[in-house]
Design a protein that fits this description.
It is a single chain. By secondary structure, the chain is of the alpha+beta class. The protein has one domain (28-223): Aminohydrolase, N-terminal nucleophile (Ntn) domain (Glutamine Phosphoribosylpyrophosphate, subunit 1, domain 1, 4-Layer Sandwich), CATH 3.60.20. The strands form two sheets. It has a five-stranded antiparallel sheet. Strands 3-4-5-6-7 form a five-stranded antiparallel sheet. It is globular. The N and C termini lie far apart (75 Å). The chain is 34% helix and 24% strand. The chain has helices at 10-26, 70-90, 98-115, 160-170, 177-188; strands at residues 31-36, 39-45, 55-59, 62-68, 122-128, 137-141, 147-150, 153-156, 206-212, 220-223.
């Protein structure tokens, strides 16, 4: 006797894909992105940062951060660089914006989520530093292509819901780089995020970079040693 074909509703398929992607992202270590008075700080809990970067420069005033499956967010990073270079070459460098890049990423992630067998297990942040604080932009993109325009701070990966609650309580506009750095390290050092109770993660376990608004063109700078804010 022929068995009837196995049927799964579209809603269940989407729910299963979402659960799969969220589980993969939650296993990764977190990234925190914070606005401060002179730019945007990006900090990742990434002990292997010398070889596998979670944070990188995309274009003049734009940076990228990713969590989840490394090869997947690395592919997105490379695609973003190509997109930005082509747009800047074809039109003008000022036409390369975080908003346009976030929209391009959203289309890619949304298509993969709905059409491919397996969704991307990634969550990414696209940040752009403006000439003034009001022009700073931080976009958070989820595995399904949804985009959130964050105001001043965001955490992705790990227990991001808990980290964002803490950031909502402690982040304040106009904080300087050292205060922003201290807040990011405190959050990433929570026991559930890889730290030991009462201890802060050492700089060697962190990948750090800044987008500095006072720079004339390339605003991205990696911080490879002790924090310094003298540019």
């Amino acid at each position: 006797m022929t068995q009837p074909p196995f049927y799964v509703s579209p809603e269940q398929v989407m729910a299963d894909r979402a659960d799969f992607a969220r589980a993969g992202i939650a296993r990764g270590r977190s990234v925190v992105v914070l606005g401060y008075d002179e730019g945007i700080l990006l900090v990742a809990d990434n002990p292997s940062s010398r070889s596998l970067n979670k944070i990188s420069e995309i274009y003049d005033r734009i940076a990228f951060a990713g969590v989840g499956k490394y090869n997947e967010f690395e592919n997105l990073r490379v695609a973003g660089i190509r997109y930005a270079d082509l747009r800047g070459y074809s039109y003008d460098r000022s036409d390369v914006t975080a908003r346009a890049l976030a929209n391009a990423y959203a289309q890619t992630l949304g298509t993969v989520f709905t059409q491919d067998q397996k969704p991307y297990e990634v969550e990414i942040v696209v940040a752009e530093v403006g000439h003034v604080v009001a022009d700073d932009r931080i976009y958070r993109l989820a595995y399904d292509g949804s985009v959130a325009d964050e105001q001043g701070w965001v955490a992705v990966g790990g227990d991001s819901a808990r980290l964002n609650e803490i950031l909502a309580e402690r982040w304040r506009p106009g904080m300087d780089l050292r205060d922003a750095h201290a807040l990011a390290v405190d959050v990433l050092s929570l026991p559930d995020e890889g730290g030991e109770p009462g201890d802060l993660l050492p700089d060697g376990a962190l990948e750090m970079a800044v987008l500095e608004r006072h720079r004339t063109r390339r605003c991205f700078r990696r911080i490879t040693g002790p924090l310094r804010d003298d540019g």
